[in-house]
Amino acid sequence: MKEIFERISVRKFKDIPVEPEKIEQILRAAMAAPSASNQQPWEFYVVTDKATIKQLAGVSPYAACAENAPLVIIPCYRTEGLRWEETVHIDLACAVENMLLEITSLGLGGVWLCAAPLEDRMNKAEAALMLPDKLKPFAIVPVGYPDESRKQQDRFDTKRVHYIR
Question: Of 33, 80, 101, 146, which cross-links 94 as Cys (Cβ 3.0–4.6 Å)?
Fold first, then answer.
């Protein structure tokens, strides 16, 4: 998959809305992710409302770039009815990575902004979205047509590979 080697974190976006069919494709990719015992603990909030996006941009100093995104997706996880509660962050991380790869394949850009497990950020995101008690925000993912470009850096490091033969 070329997207693995092309994906970059995009924090600057053009003022162009993301088409509904592309949003659906991103969400389909997210929900195709593996999860422990196939519990699929995720739910996704899709935000295009500028006032709510502005609130989400204030969740952390690193989230300010979200303010100019035409779309922000917040992957959330359920806190009830889970078989493996301790794996929800792993499950959601897989879903977010799938989202970012699909975002890249669609010619869009995005960035993974941390919410969980930092309580202050989670609380601010919960308030902005008015989440029900049974849902917790995992990340904030601004999405849009990129207004920046660069090559992905090569992160392969042979010193981090250990063979046991």
Answer: 33
> What one-letter code names the amino acid at 59?
V
> 76 with 138: CB under 8 angstroms?
yes
pTM: 0.94
The boundaries of the domain holding residue 20 are 2-6+15-148
Q: State the total domains in the chain.
A: 1
Task: Concatenate the DSSP letters of all residues of 83-140 into one string.
Answer: S-GGGHHHHHHHHHHHHHHHHHHTT-EE--EE-TT-HHHHHHHHHHHT--TTEEE-EE
Q: Would 26 be classed as within a structural domain?
A: yes
Q: How far apart are CA 119 and CA 12, in angstroms?
A: 27
First-last CA distance in the chain:
29
